[in-house]
Amino acid sequence: MNSKNLFLVNTPYQLMLVINMVLEVFNKEENDIIITNRIADNSKLGKRLENSGIFEKVFLINIDEEISENDVFHIFKERLIPSKFKYLREKYNRFMFANLNHSVSAIFRVLKKDNPDIQIQMFEDGYATYSEYYGDYFKIYTENSKDWKKVLRKWYHCFVDEIFLKIDTLYVLNPEVMTYNTYFNIKKMPAINCNNKDLINVYNLIFEYNESVDSYSQKIIFFEESYYADGYNCNDIEIVEKIANILGKENLFIKIHPRNPKNRFKELGYKTNTNTSIPWEVIAMNMDLSKKILLSIASVSVLTPSTMLGKQYEGVLLMNVISDKSFLKQNITCLYENVCGNYENLHVIENYSELDNIINLSNILK
């Protein structure tokens, strides 16, 4: 009898990784998947996944209706008298997920009724997984302290979220940049092979990629982030204007962030994308990036085509150029510097002269 796996997915990035793992690592096993409502239009996405034949079963869950993440009474009640996800009572050998939340514990409590020896494994959720944010969380389960607050915290987590004690493996793309040691194995997952046309076609069908919508023909792509939507003044327009003065506005394309309420850069005459629903990584896998420069203040989109897809281009982060860094997540941006240190084509620059040098050496604008 084949092993049977259940995957829980909350983001398009996670789904892309899971699809690749299923096809490359678990292709001789049966695989089911849960798609939560944290992915927009998850019902339509679920239909496309069913039609792809990659998974045996596709479950759709409104995770916010099922589990109240911030309601302690609800969490304790669900721990003592499990009532959710009973339709998942099937034989599974492995349960895999990416996030640190109570919903995975609720699903685990249902699964272990029929699968007491089920393997618990995680896979990365971008660079937060590599950071001390995750490391500090896992440390709660193993710390030995006489401080009553820490003792109580450890008891609470072990009681309510015991699943995290049972993790045996964490799959990541870049184990060399992990910032913490922990009690389970760290295993490298395969990067997505962009030379595999059949695989690219699978992603294109699932995410409804259409190259005719946005051309991305300019040689320099700047990635807007969600600071505007979140109420932070990061002066990104001023930064883009400086870059346009250095490199030429005609060479610049702005990839707008889907959460920002208006297209500020289009109003200023910049060329921008119109479709914000297709994941950037799907767009990137369909493009030749070798003659392009990807720029951002601190967007992971500058890094993932290289770290996730193995693409070659020049990627530049400007987070050290700006004077006010109060809106940046320092634990993540420090990690970005470590990542860039492992890739010759990825850079964290200190001033605009360095950007000019990178462009001159790359000959991209010649």
Walkthrough of the structure:
- The protein has helices at 12-24, 42-52, 63-66, 72-80, 102-114, 132-139, 148-160, 197-207, 236-247, 264-267, 280-285, 304-307, 330-341, 352-362, and strands spanning 4-9, 30-36, 57-61, 94-97, 119-123, 167-172, 185-188, 220-223, 252-255, 271-272, 293-296, 314-317, 346-348.
- With 366 residues, the chain is α/β, with parallel strands linked by helices.
- It has a seven-stranded parallel beta sheet, with helices on both faces. Strands 10-9-8-11-12-13 form a six-stranded parallel beta sheet.
- Helix 2 runs antiparallel to helix 8.
- The protein starts with a strand and ends with a helix.
How is this structure best summarized?
This protein has 366 residues and is α/β, with parallel strands linked by helices.
Based on the model shown, name its key terms.
36% helix; alpha/beta; 14 helices; 6-stranded parallel β-sheet; 366 residues; 13 strands; globular
What are the secondary-structure elements, in order, as H or E? EHEHEHHEHEHHEEHEHEHEHEHEHEH
Rg value = 22 Å
Secondary structure: helix percent: 25-40%
Percentage of residues in DSSP E strands: 15-25%
Q: Largest sheet, if any?
A: 7 strands, parallel
Q: Return the average pLDDT rounded to an integer.
A: 89
Structural class, by secondary structure, is alpha/beta
| Number of helices, where a helix is a run of at least 4 consecutive DSSP H or I residues | 14
**How far is it from the N-terminal to the C-terminal residue, by CA?**
59 Å
Enumerate the strands of the largest sheet in spatial order, edge to edge or round the barrel: 3-2-1-4-5-6-7
